[in-house]
Amino acid sequence: MSLQAVGVLGTGKYVPERVLTNHDLENMVDTNDEWIVTRTGIRERRIASPEQASSDLAYEASKIALNKAGIAPEEIDLIIVATITPDMSFPSTACILQDKLGAKKAAAFDLSAACSGFIYSLANATNFIATGTYKYALVVGAECLSKITDYTDRNTCILFGDGAGAVVLGPVAEGRGFKSFELGADGTGGDLLKIAGGGSRCPASPQSLEGKQHFIYMAGAEVFKFAVRIMGSAAEDALRKAGIAKSEVDLLVPHQANIRIIQSALQRLDLSEDKCMINLDKYGNVSAASIPIALAEADEEGRVKEGDCIVLVGFGGGLTWGASVLIW
Ligand code: ACO
Fold it and tell me: Superkingdom of the source (predicted)?
């Protein structure tokens, strides 16, 4: 069976209006702008309003992506939302988004792979289209991390922000589109990055609230070491699978967790910083939304041209990682 080439037909992003700066955080925890900028590269992040949930952010980003692709919601066959901050346990945020968009014929589900969730979702949707099961898919990364962040914990609260990015995938000309995916997981590192409460192991209770188990817990230094190792190697593996040399890469679009992690990946890939999309200074770490927001922003800024070789790469809780090579 010959496989249909699959690529990106349109991109969109949405970030909430409210800006939380490093200086604002200085008034909330024992930290300072200089520490945050030198250790992470982050200067500010966006924060959703109390009324906004992940599906609301996803909806705004999706409308832009659909519009750019020239595809009506009714034509979408599949919606996948990557998120660790779903509106609720169920129904899925993808089903809520399907309703908001009026994408009546679309199958819809959420995918949980933390910050790697968007690349995992792209791989899923691409395979559905490549094999002819579906024609058009909407893939979204959407997060309201501010709702699961402990703003008394300086180790984590400086890192995270809210936002959504969306892409419409569909058939493209032979030679274009996604050339490879490299996905991986190491469940032995699951305890390094987690929300322990609210699931079937530790349901919500006065004790779970008291123990702050509904907030993100992160062993930062361990996650950092893992990230430095995996970002470069996952990207290299994806390039090898695609049969493309590092020197042919036009743009790296990495997960926006920490500038030092991105710099180590650039070094490993022999790429200069001008070949990398970096926007973590404005948005912080938006987990599954960070790669699609960065891709949409690269598209908006005219940084991706037809035929360009783009490498997407991310890592996150699970532990998980994912990389993909895309010819624009
Ligand atoms: N302000 C000032 N000092 C701080 C702050 C802060 N906000 N946070 C920590 N410190 C202190 C620590 O307490 C520590 O002090 P101590 O030595 O007296 O104990 C000191 O700074 C150094 O701490 P480190 O943890 O060694 O700092 P590091 O340089 O490793 O940076 C950071 C910490 C930014 C969290 C880094 O480890 C990191 O980026 N880790 C990866 C996080 C990540 O990428 N997560 C992604 C996944 S998210 C997801 O999937 C949802």
Answer: Bacteria
